[in-house]
Write a structure and sequence with these properties.
Largest sheet: 9 strands, mixed
Shape: globular
Strand order of the largest sheet: 1-2-13-12-7-6-3-4-5
Low-confidence stretches: none
Mean pLDDT: 95
Radius of gyration: 24 Å
Distance between the termini: 45 Å
Number of helices: 21
Length: about 550
Amino acid sequence: MSISALQKARYAYKPKLPAILCSSIGDIAIELGEATEAVADREELRKIFRLSYGKPLATFTNGKNSTINRELKVGVILSGGQAPGGHNVIAGLFDGLKKGNPHSVLYGLKGGPSGLIENKTIVLTDAIIDEYRNTGGFDIIGSGRTKIETPEQFAASLKTAKDLGLNAVVVIGGDDSNTNAALLAEYFLSQGSDIQVIGCPKTIDGDLKNEYIETSFGFDTACKTYSELIGNLGRDTNSAKKYWHFIKLMGRAASHIALECALQTQPNVCLVSEEVEAKGLSLGQVVDQICGSIVRRAENGDNFGIVLIPEGLVEFIPEIKKLIEELNDAIAKGGEEFTEISSFIDQMYWFSRRISEPSYSILQTLPPDIARQFLMDRDPHGNVQVSRIETEKLLVGMVEKKLHALKENKLYRGKFSALTHFFGYEGRCAFPSNFDADYCYSLGYSAFVLIASGLTGYLSSVRNLTAPADQWVAGGVPLTMMMNLEQRHGSKKPVIKKALVELDGAPFKTFDEARDTWAVKTCFLFPGAIQYFGPPEVCDEPTKTLRLEHQ
C-alpha cells in the first residue's frame, strides 16, 4: 500500500499518556467515589437501570491491582458518524490489553453495532493496528448506526459475546451510542452475564460532555479543520472585496462547533442556536440580525463577509421547532402510510390533516425545495435529518428579499452577492490533531483499565485536559449519571443528555463581548492548517472552548 509522507510520519508518532497510565501495569488501581445520580428523571431511570444505576465515579491511582494482568477477550465497536481519533482509541485499548497480558485478544466488531448482533468480526493484530495509528477515519473496522433495541437484537448480542468468549464490549460513540451501551450493560446483568460494557465519548459536535467528560474526541480536530477553511474564505473575500459566504457547520443539537470556529476566525455573524431559542427569535428576526451586519458593512464600502450557521439552527427557531415536532409525531404515528406517498403535493395534503394550522402555514411559506427537505426520510431516531435541510440557502433567499425591500426604501445602497457552503464531512475523518491523538489513545487505554478492574456501565474519562498530558486525570464515569428521558418515536426514552452551549459560560461570553465589533469591522483571523510538528503551544494547543471553560 502506498502512503503519503505525512501518513508515514504519523505512524511513528507516540501518543502522550497521563502519568498514571505510564506506571507499571500492576500498579494502576481504581479508587471508587460516592454513589451517583442521573442528571434528571431519577426515579424512572432507577427502574429502567435496576442493576446498574447509581454506580460510583472511578479514578485511577497508584496501588496494587490483582486483576489487571488476567487474559481478556474484548470486542470493540465504532458506532455512529466518524470522528478524528477513533483509530487511536482502538490502538490504546489494544496496547493496554497486550501490556496487561500478551495473550489477550481484541476483536473488531465490523460495521458498527450490527457486528455484535450478527457476529461479524476480525481479530485485530499488531500488523493491523500499526496500519491505522494516528490516522483519521473509522475504516479499520467500519462504523454503523444500527441501534440495539429489540429483544431479539439484545439476545443476539449476548449470544455473539458468549460465542466469542468475550469478557467485555467497548462502544466508541456519541450520546445515543453510549445510551445503547448503558442499556446493553443492564441487559447483560439482567441475564446473569458478567460480560462488561464500557463506552468512549465520541462526537465532533462536542455535545457529549460534563464535569468529568470535558470534551468528546474529534471536536478539536474537526473545529481546527473547519476553521482553516473559514479562514481561507475570509482571506479570499477580504482580497476580492466581494461575496458574503454563508457557511453551515455540523452540530445538530448544539452550536459548539459554530461557536469554536467563531472564536478561531472572528466572522461577521455567527448564529448560536441556543441563543436563538432562549430569546425566542423568529426566522424573520434571525434574518434581520444578518441584514444588520450587511447594511452596516455596506455603509463602510465593505460588501463582503462571513456568516456561520449551526446545522441544527432550524430546530431552535420556535415556530420551525414546533413544525418539526409535529411532522415527526405525525410520521411516527402514520409512517407506513406516509412512505407510500410519492408526490410532494400529496405529501403536503397528507400533513394538512395531521399538523396544526399555524405549522402547516409555515410549511407552505417555505420554498418548495426547502419544504421537501423537511419531509425527507427520518433518521434512525425518528427525527428530521437537519443536515439535509439547506438552511444556508434558505437564509440567503430571505436575506435577498429583505435587502431588496430595504433598497426600495433607500435604507440600503450596497451590493449583495452570496455563496453557500456546508462544512461537515470534510472534518470527520481528518488526520487527528496531536491533542485528539493523545486524548483518544488515553481513552482507549483507560477503557482497558476499567475492563481489567471488573467495571461495567462506565464511560472512559480523561480530564484536566488543558494541562500537559502527563497531568491528565484518567478514570471512568457511570453512564447512568449522564442520563435523562427524552421524547423519541412518540414516547419517552432514556438517553444521555446533550450538553448545549451555555449562554452564561465563558466561551459564549467571550464571543458576545466581541461580536458587535466583528459585525461591522473586518477582523478575520486565519488559523491555517493543523500543525503536527513544532513547539507544544502550536501543536498541542486544545480548543479555545476548552481553554475558556477551564481557565
